[in-house]
């Protein structure tokens, strides 16, 4: 028995089914390192695996932070589009990376059907990219691309913050995701917005990181230009 995990009781807001899902005890979370796009690596159980709740009865899945926030129209969409095709199974047990990918994709499908905010879609896509990164899968870049598109639209049209991403953190993240996708001109533009934002002075580590990645994006942009001219 894994003592690092505990059972959380949840009532599905769609079908009212009561179920249990695993969560990682906060006292057991051990951060090993962080990537420059905020992806966290853990010693032991990874809480990211358990941040999506999925009802075993009707198939509704969403990030824990928004699981209960579903409109009457959203409920109708789940009951008409997800539940009839749903093969009942328990996704609330101990999860591997593959289990986590399955449940995040289900949450993404539900979110798209319910026309949820782009910020939520972006967060799901970003975490899917991280999950693929953990196992060295090329589909990481596919989901980073989806995350960029969603976050850019969210930045322009939706209220901030998005989860724990305030304006300056999102500006930085858009720079770094574009850089990882080798879209260096866009990356430079977003990094420029980040370091020019007055709020970044309150976040010394983020300020330093943004300037480092900004310089790196500029160097990579020059190298890319040089290669295309010599080709």
What's the arrangement of secondary structure elements?
Elements: E1 5-11, E2 18-24, E3 31-34, E4 40-42, E5 52-54, E6 61-63, H1 72-82, H2 97-113, H3 118-134, H4 139-157, H5 167-180, H6 184-196, H7 204-230
Antiparallel strand pairs: 1-2, 3-4, 5-6
Helix pairs in contact: 2-3, 3-4, 4-5, 5-6, 5-7, 6-7
The first-to-last residue Cα distance is: 58 Å
**What is the overall pLDDT average?**
96
Order of helices and strands: EEEEEEHHHHHHH
Rg over CA atoms, rounded to whole Å, is 19 Å
Strand order of the largest sheet: 1-2
Range of helix content:
40-55%
Class inferred from helices and paired strands: mainly alpha
Beta-strand content bin: 5-15%
Largest sheet entry:
2 strands, antiparallel
The tally of structural domains comes to 2
Keywords: TPR repeat
TPR repeats: 168-201
InterPro entries: DUF2225, TPR_rpt
Pfam family, one: DUF2225
Report on this model:
The chain folds into two domains: 5-155, no CATH class; 166-226, no CATH class. The model has no long low-confidence stretch (mean pLDDT 96). It has helices spanning 72-82, 97-113, 118-134, 139-157, 167-180, 184-196, 204-230; strands at residues 5-11, 18-24, 31-34, 40-42, 52-54, 61-63. The chain has 231 residues and is mainly alpha-helical.
């Amino acid at each position: 028995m894994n003592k690092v995990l505990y059972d959380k009781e949840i009532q599905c807001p769609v079908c009212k089914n009561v179920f249990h899902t695993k969560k990682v005890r906060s006292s057991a979370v051990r951060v090993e390192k962080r990537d420059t796009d905020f992806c966290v690596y853990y010693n032991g159980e990874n809480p990211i695996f358990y941040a999506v709740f999925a009802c075993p009865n009707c198939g509704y899945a969403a990030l824990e932070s928004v699981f209960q926030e579903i409109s009457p129209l959203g409920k109708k969409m789940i009951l008409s589009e997800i539940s009839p095709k749903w093969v009942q199974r328990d996704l609330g047990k101990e999860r591997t990376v593959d289990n986590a990918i399955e449940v995040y994709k289900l949450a993404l499908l539900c979110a798209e059907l319910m026309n949820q905010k782009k910020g939520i879609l972006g967060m799901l896509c970003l975490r899917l990219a991280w999950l693929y990164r953990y196992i060295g899968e090329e589909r990481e870049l596919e989901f980073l691309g989806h995350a960029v598109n969603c976050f850019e639209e969210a930045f322009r049209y939706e209220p901030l913050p998005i989860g724990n991403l305030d304006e300056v953190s999102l500006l930085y993240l858009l720079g770094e995701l574009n850089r990882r996708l080798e879209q260096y001109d866009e990356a430079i533009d977003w990094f420029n917005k980040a370091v020019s934002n007055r709020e970044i002075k309150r976040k010394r580590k983020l300020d330093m990181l943004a300037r480092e990645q900004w310089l790196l994006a500029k160097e990579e942009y020059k190298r890319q230009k040089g290669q295309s001219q010599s080709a």
